[in-house]
């Protein structure tokens, strides 16, 4: 296990920024000095790799991932949360890419004329931040 702030190995009992982080146990620090500098926006990668997900939980989180991206949640937030939850970087990357593909109108299948639903364009910086978060992720 390594410190989420400075990256050095944690020898002995880990320190945490607050009681909430201590309960979660994801963001361990090597010392009280590092835990005082902990910033969840900068130090979002957990000290240890997430536990593998069973098939049922992976399917549920995959639906949540797609729904949150489709509903307009900030991509970087969704990507980070899913990676920390244990969804693989490949699955997150595919969902992010799929969220930006144009969708065909379901009415075309029925032969009915309809105006295709237009999706709001995301800020390219938001997509770049999400892709950068995936690239930062050190675990398979």
Structure description:
This protein has helices spanning 19-24, 32-36, 55-70, 75-85, 89-99, 106-110, 124-136. It contains 7 helices and no strands. The longest helix is centred in the middle third of the chain and has 16 residues, at 55-70. The model has no long low-confidence stretch (mean pLDDT 88). It is mainly α and 140 residues long. The chain folds into 2 domains: 1-48, no CATH class; 55-136, no CATH class. Helix 4 (75-85) packs antiparallel against helix 5. The chain is globular.
Quote the distance from N terminus to C terminus.
Answer: 16 Å
Order of helices and strands: HHHHHHH
Largest sheet: none
Range of strand content? under 5%
Please give the domain count: 2
Number of strands: 0
Low-confidence stretches: none
Q: Based on CA inertia axes, which overall geometry fits?
A: globular
Portion of residues in helices?
40-55%
Radius of gyration, in Å, reads: 19 Å
Strand-pairing-aware structural class: mainly alpha
Mean of residue pLDDT? 88
Separate helix tally: 7
List the helices and strands and how they pair.
Elements: H1 19-24, H2 32-36, H3 55-70, H4 75-85, H5 89-99, H6 106-110, H7 124-136
Helix pairs in contact: 3-4, 3-5, 4-5, 4-7, 5-7
């Amino acid at each position: 296990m390594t410190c989420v702030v400075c990256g050095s190995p944690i020898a002995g009992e880990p320190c945490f920024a607050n009681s909430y982080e201590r309960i979660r146990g994801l963001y361990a620090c090597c010392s009280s000095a590092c835990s005082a500098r902990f910033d969840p926006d900068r130090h979002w990668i957990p000290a240890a790799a997430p536990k593998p997900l069973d098939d049922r939980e992976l399917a549920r989180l995959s639906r949540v991932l797609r729904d949150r991206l489709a509903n307009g949640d900030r991509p970087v937030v969704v990507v980070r949360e899913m990676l920390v939850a244990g969804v693989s970087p490949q699955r997150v990357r595919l969902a992010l890419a799929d969220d930006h593909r144009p969708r065909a109108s379901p009415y075309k299948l029925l032969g009915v004329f309809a105006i295709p639903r237009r999706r709001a364009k995301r800020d390219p910086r938001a997509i770049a931040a999400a892709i950068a978060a995936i690239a930062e992720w050190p675990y398979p």
